[in-house]
Design brief:
alpha+beta; Alpha-Beta Plaits; 48% helix; 24 helices; six-stranded mixed β-sheet; 4 domains; Serine Threonine Protein Phosphatase 5, Tetratricopeptide repeat
Length: 598
């Protein structure tokens, strides 16, 4: 074979895709950089699948048209860090091809260099020892040796020889790879892509092997999180005249693994933003300012990393599927607790003036209470949309370890959250069971923990929901406020309105009954409040659970726990800080105790 034309390019990309697809689980297994989230093989396969769709949807067999279609479709379908890099590699190839109708041997050597240069250009901070290094070193090698090749087969054989050496060297160039004892997954994936093309040229057959996790021999010695950011955020934007340098500058301090890539020309262009960040909704705002968002993907990398750790310990991806627990951010569970129990949390919305924040995603507890004290705007809250819940359910099922979901939420009398979740659940054909907890904050959090414990033990959805129903009957919440203003402004005062107007400097003790705030008592100081609440609690916790929550005042938890230590084992009491959603309605200085049997 002496040249490459449009038809041959189509077949080559398909052959490379099919070969890489057969190796995707092997690539997932060694994926530890930039984050050990176990999805590099899947992301590269999906990106190449889009590239193949672009090649075969092209209305002509012109080399130029096919290359441009591959570049456009691969960008639109790009997934993950490695996928976006691949899409920009194809963009560089398309630009190199220009008006050529055929690529001869010397031209093909230039293709590899042009692709590598384009991929580097999309990266905000290129890292050596990754797929980028392999792309560049193959290109440099082929450019230097371009006069020696007699046909495309010998060229690819030489490219693979240099590429394999380069891939092996990634293990020494990045400490994280050396520690894990693996090569870079993206770099290895690119080599599989080239191997597939070469195999097709040799045999004339398009090969798609059956992938098997049992084939995995190389596993990381160490699986650690290397990004300090939590969410892998990607947005595909349709527009024109994108200011890519300006956007890169705006993103630089909001995360790492920043890639800003584009494809297309004229009135219709596409922009792909990829970043690891703690503020995905802020990135979304940037994306919306650039054009129309056609697609978005926000993955929780900590959750993915946790799954990879379990897999590494022997819990393979083909384990018996189980029940997963989804709740909302009013549960106020500490992050490490939610992670330990593998509880998926859908964020509520906090609105300050014209600005919307996702609870626990765009704004944390510290930032919220600071804004609450400084902002002239009184915050409002709103429930997640049905689409938010639908996306969360899809993400849970996409992990492959769940056959059903229990979606557990704050009292339906306090919020429309339950109804949003119910609307979203319809499309999942009975795989999602909705539960109204009847409570909020750590009361909801304790119920989510119990459900997660039972799911981990293999209990059925019916048994878990039966247990939650029993807990709901016994739940008690006692809380007091530093100021009643937030409860009144937030509209959640319920039947306590008249009572609060008569406390005359005393501290109110309030409770929650069927999702409605009701007055219970009043006291002159904190000691009397604790004494009153203690009189309403059981003598021991042998068949119950207790939690203590505070709003921006951890010293109160210490004082309450000191009062409780004479009666209870403090190690069995859950503590946490009230988050932005509940904090909007109760204000700083609030504290409360939650109790329920079970």
């Amino acid at each position: 074979m002496q040249y490459l034309d449009g038809i041959r390019l189509k077949r080559a990309v398909k052959a490379g895709y099919l070969w890489l697809y057969s190796k995707r689980e092997l690539l997932n297994a060694i994926n530890v950089f930039p984050v050990a989230d176990g999805d590099t093989g899947t992301n590269m396969a999906l990106t190449l699948q889009a590239a193949v769709a672009g090649a075969y949807s092209c209305k002509t067999n012109s080399l130029r048209d096919v290359a441009n279609s591959i570049a456009l479709y691969s960008l639109r379908g790009a997934r993950g860090n490695s996928g976006v890099i691949l899409s920009q590699y194809f963009k560089g190839i398309a630009e190199f091809i220009g008006k050529r109708e055929r690529l001869h041997i010397s031209d093909i050597a230039g293709v590899f260099s042009a692709g590598a240069e384009s991929a580097y250009g999309a990266m905000s901070e290129p890292r050596e020892g990754t797929i980028l290094t392999v792309l560049r070193e193959i290109g440099e090698h082929l450019h230097q040796a371009r006069e020696k090749f007699k046909n495309i087969h010998t060229l690819l054989e030489s490219a693979m020889e240099r590429g394999r050496k380069s891939v092996a060297e990634t293990r020494e160039k990045l400490k994280v790879l050396a520690d894990a004892g693996v090569v870079d997954a993206g770099a290895q994936g690119f080599m599989h892509f080239i191997e597939g093309i070469n195999n097709f040229i040799k045999t004339g057959e398009l090969t798609k092997e059956i992938d098997s996790a049992a084939d995995i021999q190389e596993l990381p010695r160490i699986i650690e999180e290397h990004s300090r950011f939590r969410y892998c955020s990607e947005f595909l934007v349709k527009g024109s005249n994108f200011d890519i340098p300006g956007l890169k500058s705006r993103l630089r301090n909001l995360g790492d693994s920043v890639i800003v890539a584009s494809s297309g020309a004229g009135e219709i262009e596409y922009l792909r933003i990829h970043i690891h960040t703690d503020k995905p909704q802020r990135i979304k705002g940037f994306a919306q300012s650039m054009g129309t968002i056609e697609n978005e993907k926000i993955d929780d990398m900590k959750s993915q990393n946790r799954l990879m750790r379990l897999w590494r310990k022997g819990m393979k991806r083909d384990v018996t599927k189980t029940v997963r627990i989804v709740t909302d951010s009013t549960c106020d569970l500490p992050e490490e607790v939610a992670e330990f129990y593998d509880i998926e949390i859908v964020p509520m919305n906090i609105i300050f003036g014209a600005d919307l924040y996702k609870d626990g995603v765009d704004i944390d507890r510290k930032g919220f209470y600071k804004m609450l004290s400084e902002s002239e705007d009184f915050p409002k809250t709103s429930q997640p949309s049905p689409e938010d819940f639908s996306d969360a359910y899809k993400n849970v099922f996409a992990r492959g370890d769940a056959e059903s979901i229990i979606s557990l939420h704050l009292s339906a009398n306090l919020s429309g959250t339950y109804n949003s979740a119910l609307m979203a659940s319809v499309e999942f054909g009975g795989k999602i069971t909705l539960v109204d907890s009847g409570t909020v904050s750590l009361g909801l959090g304790m119920m989510a923990i119990v459900a997660a414990e039972m799911a981990r033990d293999g209990d059925s959805p019916e048994k878990i929901t039966g247990k939650l129903a029993e807990m709901k009957k016994s739940q008690k919440l006692f809380f007091t406020l530093e100021s009643v203003d937030y409860l009144i402004k937030g509209g959640r005062v319920g039947k306590a309105r008249g009572f609060l107007g008569k406390v005359l400097g005393l501290k109110p003790i309030l409770t929650l009954v069927n999702g409605e705030v009701r007055p219970l008592s009043k006291a002159r100081n904190r000691e009397k409040i604790i004494e009153k609440i203690m009189s309403l609690l059981p003598v021991d916790l042998s068949d119950g659970r207790l939690a203590v929550a505070h709003a921006a005042d951890p010293s109160k938890v210490d004082q309450i726990m000191d009062a409780l230590k004479g009666r209870y084992d403090l190690n069995k009491i859950l503590t946490g800080e009230i988050g932005p959603t509940v904090g909007t309605h109760c204000g700083p200085g609030t504290w409360g105790l939650f109790y329920m049997k079970g």
